Amino acid sequence: MDTPQQDSFVFKDLFGPEHRYSLITAFLLLGGAYVAEHFANLYELEYSLRPTSTYVGDLLLDNLPVVNLNLIIIEGALFSIVVGVLFVLSKPRYILFSLKALALLIVIRALFISLTHIGIYPGNIDPGLGFFSGIYTYLNFQTGFFFSGHTALPILMAFIFWDRRAVRIAFLALSLVFGVAVLLAHIHYSIDVFAAPFMAYGIFKLAQYLFPRDYELTQSLFKKAI
């Protein structure tokens, strides 16, 4: 059901006794996840300089032209994050589950990029040295390949908001745009992009299992409306 009844759950309810500790836990998980990703990317960067870290052939990249799509990959990604954050904040009952699911995605991606080290594909588009490029690099979006965060994050959000048809379509479309862009810019191998939906779904199901009360909160409004 795509149009639930008026939501009585408001932002201040997150700070009430029922959800306060869950909110604190969510921020702790997210902070810890970012620390893990930061060190994973440092390790990946150091390992990429070793002679054993070489690029591999890729059926799509071997045949696709290199296109500079940094406007989409960098500015588009940062803009989408800001808009996405504002959107989630406008839906308070989704905040707890979204934060914890995002933390899981960051941690699992950090683990994966620490395991296998493949060299950068020749001719890839460098993010550059601009202001937004600096933010993009600082947030660790450029280092590490498997799996594509550009592709996985919008799909994860689509799963979280699956009952809202317009939101679901918007996130899926955004994932498609980013997936095509990172392939044309040659900053991801094709396996990084095509595996992302499966990784996002697995992370979503894991979040459902680990945080059932937070997920139930996202669904309770729809259940009341049925």
Q: Layout of SSEs?
A:
Elements: H1 20-48, H2 70-89, H3 95-115, H4 131-138, H5 149-160, H6 165-184, H7 190-210, H8 212-225
Helix pairs in contact: 1-3, 2-4, 2-6, 3-5, 3-7, 5-6, 5-7
Account of the 3D structure:
The protein is mostly helical and 226 residues long. The chain has one domain (11-225). Helices cover 64% and strands 0% of the residues. It has helices at 20-48, 70-89, 95-115, 131-138, 149-160, 165-184, 190-210, 212-225. Helix 1 (20-48) runs parallel beside helix 3 and helix 2 (70-89) crosses helix 4.
Summarize the model shown.
By secondary structure, the protein is mainly alpha-helical. The chain has helices at 20-48, 70-89, 95-115, 131-138, 149-160, 165-184, 190-210, 212-225. The protein has one domain (11-225).
Structural class, from secondary structure content?
mainly alpha
Largest sheet: none
Q: Give the percentage of residues in beta strands.
A: under 5%
User: End-to-end span in angstroms?
Assistant: 7 Å
Could you give the count of β-strands? 0
Rg to the nearest angstrom? 18 Å
* Secondary structure tally, helices: 8
Percent of residues in helices comes to 55-70%
Average pLDDT reading: 87
User: What general outline do the C-alpha atoms trace?
Assistant: globular
H-E order: HHHHHHHH
| Low-pLDDT runs | none
Number of domains: 1
